[in-house]
C-alpha cells in the first residue's frame, strides 16, 4: 500500500529506455482500486497494471475478455481521466510451471542433448500452451507474463538463466514470439491495436480473493490509527533523510529511523 507524505508528489515518473523511449506507466501490485486511479490520473500516467480484483469479477472478465479496459474513475474529470487498465489474469506471479526461485519445483530447461532429462521440446510446448491459455482470455495477440512474486529473485540468475533459454528456444520454434518487455511497451502495443476497449466507470471494490474473504476492512478498520500513520509518515521521511545525512559523519547515524522503516506499512495492513 502506498504510504503518502504530507501530499502527493506532483512530478511525473518518466522511465527512459536506451535514451529513446520515454513513457509514463504505473505498475502497482498492492494498491487498491480508486486509490490507484486517483494517484495515476493526478500524476499523468498512461496506464495501470495490477493484480488484485475480486475473484468473481476476474472469472467473469476472463470469460468476456475484459480484464483490460479503459477506466474512467471520475465523472468530474470526464474523458481526460481515461486510463488503459490491465488487471492480471491471476496473481502477479509467473504462470504455473515457470517459477524459477531456488526453492521452487518448476522444471528447468535442460538443453544439453547429452543429459538424460533433455527437455527443450517439452518446455517449449509447455510455454506455448500457457501462452495460448492466456491469449484465449485476452484481446489482441499481445499478452503479459509477470515473472516473479513477493520476496523472490533472491538469486536472480536462477530466473534469468531459465528465461533466456525459454525466449531463445520459443522464438526458434516460431509459433509465438517471446521477449523481455515493460508495462509501457505492452500498453503501447495494446493501444496501437485496432480494438474497441470496454469502458469502466465504477470501482473494483468490494474485493474478495476467495469466498467469504473480503478485504473491505483494509481501509475502514482502525481509521484513526491509519490517518495518524499517514500524517506522521511525512515527518518520518524528513527525519530519515536527516539521519542519512548524519550517517556521513556519525557511525550508524541512520539507526534511529531504521527500525521504523517497516512499521508504517505493517500497521496500515
Automatic annotation (TrEMBL):
The keyword Transmembrane applies. Keywords: Glycosidase, Hydrolase, Membrane, Transmembrane, Transmembrane helix. GO terms for molecular function: alpha-mannosidase activity. The keyword Transmembrane applies. Pfam families: Glyco_hydro_38N (PF01074). It comes from the Eukaryota. GO terms for biological process: mannose metabolic process. Residues 41-208 form the Glycoside hydrolase family 38 N-terminal domain. The chain crosses the membrane at residues 228-249. This is Glycoside hydrolase family 38 N-terminal domain-containing protein. It comes from Kingdonia uniflora.
